[in-house]
From TrEMBL, chain B:
Subcellular locations according to the entry: Cell membrane
Source species, domain of life: Bacteria
Protein name, entry field: Peptide/nickel transport system permease protein
Family assignment from sequence similarity: Belongs to the binding-protein-dependent transport system permease family.
TM annotation in the entry: 12-30, 99-122, 134-155, 167-188, 227-253, 273-296
Keyword annotations: Cell membrane, Membrane, Transmembrane, Transmembrane helix, Transport
Membrane-protein topology: Multi-pass membrane protein
Matching Gene3D superfamilies: MetI-like (1.10.3720.10)
Automatic annotation (TrEMBL), chain C:
GO biological process: peptide transport; transmembrane transport
Main location: membrane
GO molecular function, one term: ATP hydrolysis activity
Gene source species: Celeribacter neptunius
UniProt subcellular location: Cell inner membrane
Entry protein name: Peptide/nickel transport system ATP-binding protein
GO CC list: plasma membrane
TM region(s), chain numbering: none
Family statement drawn from the similarity comment of this UniProt entry: Belongs to the ABC transporter superfamily.
InterPro entries: AAA+_ATPase, ABC_transp_ATP-bind, ABC_transporter-like_ATP-bd, ABC_transporter-like_CS, Oligopep_ABC_C, P-loop_NTPase
Keyword hit for Aminoacyl-tRNA synthetase: no
SUPFAM superfamilies in the cross-refs: P-loop containing nucleoside triphosphate hydrolases
ABC transporter domain sequence ranges: 28-278, 314-552
UniProtKB/TrEMBL annotation, chain D:
Predominant cellular place of this UniProt entry's protein: membrane
Keyword Flavoprotein part of the UniProt annotation: no
Any GO BP: transmembrane transport
InterPro entries registered for this protein in UniProt: BP-dependent_transpt_permease, MetI-like, MetI-like_sf, OppC_N
GO cellular component: plasma membrane
Transmembrane segments: 27-49, 97-120, 157-176, 210-235, 255-276
Location in or out of the cell: Cell membrane
Name of the molecule in the record: Peptide/nickel transport system permease protein
Entry similarity comment: Belongs to the binding-protein-dependent transport system permease family.
Coiled coil (residue ranges): none
Bilayer disposition of the protein: Multi-pass membrane protein
Keywords: Cell membrane, Membrane, Peptide transport, Protein transport, Transmembrane, Transmembrane helix, Transport
Domain ABC transmembrane type-1: 93-282
Length: 521, 306, 602, 297
């Protein structure tokens, strides 16, 4: 098989995971927080899945799939005998229903946009159809999905939570409250939900994958301040603090060997960056943008966050396929930056604004950036605002000259280089209300990106990744961003938690892949 | 009295309408788009427009408000944008915890504040008075987050007297109430001292002493009720002040109250929840003040409700 | 040491007591008592080396000048001196215990139980937010382990004993709803209910009309007879002294002038001050000798009342609905002419102060009140202010009427300031002059009200009212707390102002001698209505209404040898102005029996 | 307008002794001393502070990015960005004094004015004013702040205005209750009969009785407004980083109170001392100016 189960794994037991924020919903078509993301993953399954602890795709509810020559038609063979938590068997009808549901505007799914490549999506989006014409039920165990354009990311999309298969009767029964009464095919099912306090998942005994899950139950306690959660972990009351190690406690934990031992470090698909609004002077001048790139002391910034990150050179994080390993990025060189500014006619510097979300450590990072830019004569005023305000300013033309992405930063939805381009660097995002906050729009690169994504042949994967690498190198040349760092993930666990370290820094299941971890006592 | 009550209730209703309107307006002009929060970062322009239409957010302000208001008068708070759940149900499930916490906090405030304030007034000018003054100011100056964590650290982690956060039993209630109430107790004790000093000078206290009443009776029956008048007015105010402190206290102690709900909603522009919580807390504040006003004539019969 | 333990028998009403078995052993001894006040630059002595002894069942009168330290002495005995004041020398012994050396906790046990006190100013001395009933029962229960209901019964008895009407109702009322005299009776009832060994009564009857005063004095005597209570009676009323006291201590400026058995003192005062004091005592009948004022027939009245009614609501039940009404003033009508002194006399609680308050617009009224040609109510702010300049009132309770946080000089000069008269220096000068004229030292103008004695505060209020030289001054029991010499002086002042400027007075007093002395015309009130009205000669010389007669008879006579003809004590229901909603008191019709002498018929 | 002009007479008469009496009170002098010290410190911060308040010193952080404890090169230690806390506290005093004294004072004034008026007149004026107060109290302040933050350029004066605008309500309510009790006292009736105008009664007779309470609210208000400023600034209304204020130093660092206690406790102590100092001074002045307290110490 694709994954070798841990031979030491034992069945039984329960763990307690804490979160600060309440869980908004467990509806897979709607949930898009990083905290309910992995919960939904454990409650639901899609046609595709990832090998635990990796970014490698594997079939999920689909037993196998076939891709047509032109890469435009996918035929999925479903597993038989997979049961929903309500006891009914999952069939191809459910797959179709689920995809129709998520793309139906009435569902208001934030993920609907991912399905743009499926034939008939446009008709769904504008309300002229109520069913995706590209999705056909061949027989109870076979679904055929036709695309309107070749798209190499399609299988990743099928592994997204949004593609999870849900039973129609449960959705109909609960209506808008389905998110509070989730019914899926996942390894766990929701046993109890006390709003504002805790959620209890219990093992799905009928789970279609053999041997997993190991845990009998998972209790998510919400509304818990991260510092207190860590305190409770230290007291042995909690197994995994879902929000990680709070910055204020990081040094304390890492300097105590007994605790540091229980910390698992791993990369994640994250980049922290500064956007430079290319439509606003003086950032419309590429020289100025480059100068800014050279002025930022990334080492110092990583030091400020206690070294919990690696300085970044490019938009893609290192663990992402397509990352350009031999690219050095802009070197830190204030003198050269100054000279460059002078060349651009801004020898006296200029004044600008930096928007930042107001949660620690982002304002601190912004202040470090501010100081760095001051050194080259750029006078930065910090606007530290609530997340929604920053997002609004970013999506308004001429709203924000600079934005530090922290707290709202791009963590990939799926491990594919394309995920870092479209909405945040492509022309599609450079619109009112879009997420391309540097308003960078290079049609040439858009074309290249489309080209790369149309390479669906698995054999051509290298060529595709190279294309993406080229795209991002071009981006760096135009420097609409200052990539600052790639944050690492530090997950802490209680002593009794077992399982491969990779499960604790699973790139798609944050913080932990619940289906495969176990407790040793 | 009855006429007064009716008049006040009508006024209360008007105030609530006012609050609802202004809040709704603020949310409308707020430069943060709820739709973008719902649509998420991968949404296409089309999706965004769809959602906006679905929620009726593309309608003129007055229409939106009218819709909301007509729901409100029928007791319908609408559905959360992000959670999709009925706001009424969400609030109802969390309100008891918040009320419990507030009651606990008011109890702590009164107990600590009135006691310390009275002691300070009696021992006016003595060292204990000065010590209590420092306490009051420390209580007011201390950030609640730090107070809460310290309390948790000392009484729950080190001494193990109370659970480390959570909700359910009386033991869970103690530390959060204390944390939330400590600031108020600083206020109360200063207020109490000041008004008590005044009262203790009054001739009728002399009369009470001349009767040979015990110290406790002089204080409890004569001085306290006379001194407590400004304190009563504060209880209504407190409910308002708590609303800001409660966010911190609830998150430190993992208390499933309304504060956290509100905070998350504000950050994510979940308008129906913000409106719902605002309306509920506004109602509580206005009714709290009404209650305080109704109580005062019972305490001081010279004051008449007009 | 001038004080001896000997007592002289001879008090009129209680001849048996002073010779009782224990008469020889003093209950309370005050020995060299010195009280001083801490001031900026050290201490000033207020009471200097005062000594006397009090035997069981004896009544000792403390008399003397207003501000001479009578109240301070009694407070010192109770151990209740205000902060800042202290006993700086001497001792107070209750039997053998030195009270000045006792800790607060031990004192508490004695207070109320063995020594009780009736305070001078009843308004501020009652807790404003507790009902009368609560305050009374509490006093009883503090010393005797009786049940609530028993205490209530006894409280009711005490209220009945002081002849308060509708005692059950009063139990549920608050101090501010009672008239001055009623509050004072509540204070007395409170002290009496405790049946202490020593009772200190500080001006207990100042606010009481003579008939009630009579009752209260009888009551004190009963208490003395039944329980052998020793009484320290502080009063300026020499009539009361003569009737009640066994011995008299005369004080002046904190020093003892003379102490003597009452008969000796009246018969042969040794000191000049005492002689002056006695000479100043107004006696009933003296007034007739005063020259009659010109008849004010043709003039337009400065104040004219017709059909004036004032009612107060009494609320009950949880919803505080109006259940009863106090018909405080019913259909009262009279005129006050320029340059005239019009007196209102009548039973305590009959509505005198209420009329006064209605005249200055402090309580809403029905009917017509015309002041200086303006009908009250609906006046413009300007007119109202102008009117206020012409009409001034001196309140019954001086402490309550003075802003405690202002210097008295500023208080007295304030009316001038309000009406924009003079410069700040001239106002100050006026204040000093007024102080002088009411017998206060002009140096005191920078003091605060609480630093004065009751009588001094009363004079401050008078000074304030005089400042504007108004056309009409309403004096509500304004000389009641003044010792006779000061009283005489103030009355003279009032008269001379009248002669010089034609000021009119509406004079409210229970002191019939003073009333006779000063008034041109008199109205006698009973339960909110006028029962008799006429010139001084008519009312005093030819009283027609039974209540008027009773009033004149009850006046205490400042002569210890005077034998009061025995009269039956008043019993039965005390009439009251409280009616249920819808009920009304019967309207009395006044009949002219000649020369404008009006008498109620029926 | 003769109503108000009297004010000077009494005060000036007492004036020479006020200072003399104040000098005799140790605690009051301590309070005055601290206030003067902080004010001077704020004014002359550039001369006193060893570093610029926003300079992120290389040696201010350990290699792991931890701040330096007090002592040694840094008197109060450094913060999470390696800035000198002493300099930040000095400069922060500027913001915090303005908020704690000016904004809070303004709020106090508005509140007292409204409370006194409503309490004295009762009737419809009182009803309107108090219902308006209720409305303000029920109003979501944070939301308003978020809105303002997005509309205006953040500035100290805006946050000061916001604080003055929202913080008067509590004072108003308490003053209202007290005033309505005072208004029923007989001496106020006596003043009316003298023809005293409303303003005179309010300012000369009612207000002095409220002074002790106003001192309480005013001085405690210093702490709360200084902390409120931090919250509002956090939402983007007030001073923006790197401008320090005592409130925002605490606010930014409160989660680190165990790892770097000085970051919370030093500015916290400053707030406490400032409020306390004003209280000591206010209490002493009240004792001196308020007769009824005389000789009570
Ligand atoms: N707190 C105080 N501070 C300073 N002086 C005071 C204080 N209390 C009273 N006095 C002064 O002490 C003197 C005696 O006052 P006291 O009240 O004993 O007089 P009194 O004999 O009862 O007079 P009256 O008959 O007018 O009530 C007065 O001159 C008064 O001014
Ligand atoms: N605010 C009030 N509420 C209810 N009843 C009141 C109120 N004020 C006065 N009264 C009642 O009105 C009646 C008349 O009171 P008023 O004060 O006029 O008496 P008075 O003639 O001045 O008596 P005294 O000589 O005892 O001062 C009393 O029965 C009193 O209880
Ligand atoms: Mg006296
Ligand atoms: Mg009266
Ligand atoms: Ni008896």
């Amino acid at each position: 098989q694709d994954y070798t189960p841990d031979p030491n794994a034992v069945d039984g037991g329960g763990i307690i995971v804490t979160y600060k924020d309440d869980v908004a919903t467990l509806d897979p078509a709607i949930g898009y927080d990083w905290q309910n993301w992995s919960m939904i993953k454990s409650l639901f399954d899609g046609l595709m899945d990832y090998i635990p602890g990796t970014t490698d795709l594997r079939p999920g509810l689909a037993e196998s799939y076939e891709i047509s020559e032109d890469g435009m038609t996918f035929t999925f063979k479903l597993r038989q005998g997979v049961k929903f938590h309500n006891g009914r068997e999952m069939t191809a009808e459910d797959v179709k229903y689920s995809l129709d549901r998520v793309t139906n505007p009435e569902t208001m799914s934030p993920g609907a946009g991912f399905f743009g490549m499926i034939a008939g999506y446009d008709a769904m989006a504008d309300g002229s159809a109520d069913s995706l014409s590209g999705v056909t039920v061949i027989d109870p165990y076979t679904v055929e999905i036709k695309l309107s354009r070749p798209d190499a990311t399609f299988l990743h999309v099928m592994a997204l939570n949004f593609s999870s298969v849900v039973p129609k009767e449960a959705v109909d029964e609960y209506g808008a409250d389905f998110g509070k009464h989730p019914v899926g095919t996942g390894a766990f099912k929701l046993a109890d939900w006390t709003i504002g306090q805790k959620l209890v998942f219990e093992k799905n005994a009928d789970y279609w994958r053999d041997g997993v899950p190991y845990l009998d139950s998972i209790t998510f306690e919400v509304g818990q301040e991260p510092i207190v959660a860590l305190l409770r972990l230290q007291q042995g009351e909690v197994d995994v603090p879902g929000d990680g190690i709070p910055p204020a406690k990081f040094q304390e934990v890492m300097s105590d060997p007994a605790q540091a031992e229980r910390v698992v470090v791993g990369g994640q698909l994250h980049t922290g960056y500064i956007t430079l609004n290319v439509t606003m002077p003086p950032f419309d001048n590429v020289e100025v943008r480059r100068a800014v790139n050279m002025a930022i002391n990334k080492e110092r910034i990583t030091q400020i966050i206690n070294g919990r990150a690696e300085p970044a050179t490019q938009p893609l994080p290192p663990s992402m396929p397509g990352y350009t390993t031999d690219y050095e990025g802009y070197a830190f060189d204030p003198e050269a930056a100054k000279a460059m500014l002078a060349e651009a006619g801004l020898g006296d510097g200029f004044a600008t604004e930096l928007y930042v979300m107001n949660t620690d450590p982002n304002p601190r990072i912004a202040q470090a950036i501010q100081q760095d830019l001051k050194a080259i004569g750029v006078d930065v005023a910090i606007k530290s605002l609530a997340q929604a305000n920053v997002i609004e300013a970013g999506g308004t033309e001429g709203g924000a000259p600079m934005i530090w992405s922290g707290g709202m930063a791009w963590i990939a939805d799926f491990p594919d280089p394309s995920n870092f381009y479209g909405p945040i660097l492509g022309c599609a995002g450079a619109i009112e209300g879009g997420w391309n906050w540097s308003w960078y729009c290079n049609p040439e690169l858009d074309a290249m990106a489309a080209e790369a994504d149309s390479i669906t042949d698995p054999a051509m994967i290298e060529a595709r990744l190279q294309k993406w690498s080229d795209v991002y190198m071009k981006v760096m040349e135009d420097a609409p961003w200052v990539p600052v760092f790639n944050e690492s993930r530090y997950t802490m666990k209680s002593e009794r938690m077992g399982g491969d370290d990779a499960l604790y820094v699973d790139p798609v299941s944050i913080p932990v892949n619940y289906d495969y971890v176990y407790v040793t006592e | 009295m009855l006429a007064y009550l009716i008049r006040r209730l009508v006024q209360t209703a008007l105030i609530l309408v006012g609050v609802s309107f202004v809040t709704f307006l603020l949310l409308y002009v707020l430069p943060a788009d709820p739709v973008r929060q719902i649509a998420g970062r991968s949404a296409t322009a089309q999706t965004v427009e769809n959602i906006r239409h679905q929620l009726g957010l593309d309608q003129p302000f007055i229409v939106q408000y009218a819709n909301y208001f007509s729901g409100l008068v029928q007791g319908d708070f609408g559905r959360s944008y992000l959670q999709k759940t009925e706001v009424g149900a969400l609030i109802a499930s969390r309100l008891p915890a918040t009320l419990l916490l507030m009651l606990g906090a008011i109890f702590c405030e009164l107990l600590i504040g009135l006691t310390l304030g009275s002691i300070a007034a009696i021992k006016r000018g003595k060292w204990i008075d000065q010590l209590l003054m420092v306490f009051s100011f420390a209580a007011v100056s201390a950030p609640q987050f730090v107070v809460g964590l310290l309390a948790l650290y000392i009484f729950a982690v080190k001494l193990g007297w109370f659970p480390i956060g959570g909700y359910g039993t009386f033991a869970h209630l103690v530390l959060p109430s204390l944390t939330l109430g400590i600031m108020g107790s600083g206020w109360y004790s200063r207020m109490m001292r000041s008004s008590m000093v005044d009262v203790l000078r009054a001739d009728f206290i002399r009369t009470a002493r001349a009767k040979g009443l015990t110290r406790w009776r002089v204080l409890g029956r004569h001085a306290l009720p006379n001194a407590i008048l400004p304190i009563i007015a504060m209880i209504g105010i407190d409910i308002g002040l708590f609303m800001s402190g409660i966010v911190v206290v609830e998150s430190v102690f993992g208390w499933p109250g309304i504060g956290q709900l509100a905070w998350q909603a504000i950050q994510r522009v979940d308008i129906p929840i913000i409106m719902g919580v605002t309306m509920v807390s506004a109602t509580a504040i206005v009714l709290g003040n009404l209650l305080a006003d109704l109580i005062t004539p019972f305490i001081d019969p010279r004051i008449k409700l007009r | 040491m001038s004080a001896q333990a000997q007592t002289t028998p001879g008090a009129v009403a209680a001849p048996g007591i002073a010779t009782g078995p224990e008469a020889g052993a003093p209950v309370l001894t005050v020995d060299g008592l010195t009280i001083s006040v801490r001031q900026d630059g050290g201490e000033a002595v207020l009471v200097d080396n005062l000594s006397f002894a009090l035997g069981r069942g004896e009544t000792l009168a403390l008399a003397g000048e207003s501000g001479s330290g009578k109240s301070l002495t009694s407070l010192a005995i109770m151990g209740l001196l205000a902060p800042g004041l202290r006993v700086s020398g001497g001792a107070v012994r209750l039997r053998d215990t030195d009270l000045t050396a006792l800790p607060e906790s031990a004192l508490r046990g004695l207070r109320g139980n063995r020594v009780a006190m009736i305070f001078q100013e009843p308004m501020t001395s009652l807790n404003p937010i507790l009902t009368i009933g609560a305050q009374l029962t509490e006093a009883i229960r503090a010393h005797e382990p009786v049940s609530k209901s028993d205490a209530r019964v006894r409280a009711l008895e005490a209220l009945k004993a002081v002849r308060l009407s509708q005692p059950e109702k009063r139990m549920t009322q608050y101090p501010h709803e009672l008239s001055g005299g009623m509050r004072q009776r509540v204070m007395i009832a409170m002290a009496l209910a405790l049946e202490p060994d020593v009772l200190i009564a500080d001006e207990p009857t100042t606010a009481l009309d003579v008939t009630v005063q009579r009752e209260v004095l009888d009551l004190l005597r009963d208490l003395q007879r039944e329980h052998g209570t020793a009484i320290i009676l502080i009063t300026h009323d020499m009539g009361v002294v003569a009737e009640m006291a066994d011995r008299v201590v005369i004080l002046k400026q904190g020093q003892m002038v003379e102490v003597a058995p009452v008969r000796d003192l009246f018969a042969a005062p040794k000191k000049q001050y005492t002689r002056d004091l006695l000479a100043a005592v107004p006696r009933l009948g003296d007034g007739s000798s005063a020259q009659a004022l010109p008849e004010p027939v043709s003039q337009t009245p400065i104040a004219s009342l017709s059909e004036v009614k004032v009612r107060f609501d009494i609320r009950g039940g949880i919803l505080s609905r109006v259940t009863h009404r106090v018909h405080a003033v019913e259909n009262v009508g009279f005129n006050v002419y320029p340059g005239e002194t019009f007196s209102l006399v009548g039973e305590s609680g009959c509505g005198k102060s209420t009329i006064a308050k209605a005249l200055v617009g402090l309580v809403p009224h029905l009917g017509r009140i015309e002041l200086n040609g303006h009908v009250l109510g609906g006046l413009s702010a300007q007119d109202q202010k102008a009117l206020r300049r012409d009409v001034q009132i001196v309140f019954q309770d001086p402490m309550a009427a003075l802003d405690p946080r202002m210097r008295v000089g500023d208080l007295v000069a304030e009316p001038l300031l309000i009406h924009g008269i003079g410069s700040s220096e001239s106002r100050r000068a006026t204040a000093r002059e007024l102080f002088d004229r009411v017998g206060l030292s002009p140096d005191w103008i920078d003091r605060y009200p609480h630093e004065f004695s009751g009588g001094q505060r009363q004079r401050i209020c008078i000074a304030r009212a005089l400042a504007l030289r108004p056309k009409l001054i309403i004096c509500d029991e304004s000389v009641s707390a003044l010792d006779v010499s000061v009283q005489a002086r103030v009355l003279d002042l009032l008269k001379s102002l009248q002669a010089d400027f034609g000021v009119s007075y509406l004079f409210i007093s229970h002191d019939m001698a003073v009333v006779e002395n000063i008034s041109d015309r008199i109205a006698v009130m009973y339960l909110g209505q006028i029962v008799e009205m006429g010139t001084r000669a008519q009312v005093f010389g030819n009283p027609q209404h039974s209540y008027t007669k009773r009033l004149i008879e009850a006046v205490p006579v400042p002569d210890p040898s005077f034998e009061r003809p025995l009269r039956p004590r008043l019993t039965g229901d005390i009439p009251s102005p409280i009616y249920s909603l819808g009920e009304q008191p019967e309207r009395l019709l006044l009949k002219n029996i000649g020369d404008g002498h009006l008498v109620a018929v029926g | 307008m003769t109503e108000l002009s009297i004010k000077t007479t009494t005060v000036s008469r007492a004036d020479p002794t006020v200072w003399a009496q104040l000098f005799r009170r140790k605690l009051a002098m301590f309070g005055l001393g601290f206030i003067v010290l902080i004010t001077l410190g704020a004014i002359f911060a550039p001369l006193i502070a060893p570093f610029a308040p926003d300079e992120q010193l290389f040696e201010g952080l350990t290699l792991q990015g931890a701040p330096m404890a007090p002592g040694g090169q840094f008197l109060f230690g450094t913060d999470l960005l390696g800035r000198d806390l002493f300099a930040r506290v000095l400069y922060g005093a500027r913001t915090s004094l303005i908020i704690g004294v000016v904004a809070n004072g303004l709020a106090l004034m508005i509140g007292t004015l409204i409370g006194v008026t409503a309490g004295y007149f009762r009737g419809w004026i009182g009803a309107v004013l108090m219902r308006f107060t209720d409305l303000m109290m029920a109003f979501p302040v944070l939301l308003l702040a978020i809105c303002l933050a997005a509309i205006f350029q953040p500035s100290l004066w805006i946050v000061a205005m916001v604080i003055a605008f929202v913080n008067w309500v509590q004072t108003a309510r308490v003053v209202y209750t007290e005033t309505s009790a005072l208004a029923e006292r007989e001496f106020i009736a006596a003043e009316k009969t003298l023809g005293a105008g409303t303003l005179r009664i309010l300012f000369r007779h009612i207000l002095p009785h409220l002074v002790p309470m106003i001192i309480v609210w005013g001085t405690l208000g210093i702490s709360t407004t200084v902390l409120l400023e931090a919250t509002l600034s956090y939402l983007g209304v007030g001073v923006q980083p790197p401008t320090p204020s005592w409130g925002n130093i605490i606010f930014e660092n409160q989660t680190y109170f165990q790892a770097a206690p000085w970051l919370v406790f030093i500015p916290g102590a400053m707030i406490l001392l400032l409020a306390l100092s004003f209280n000591l001074l206010g209490d002493a002045l009240r004792d001196i100016l308020d007769p009824t307290q005389r000789g009570m110490r």
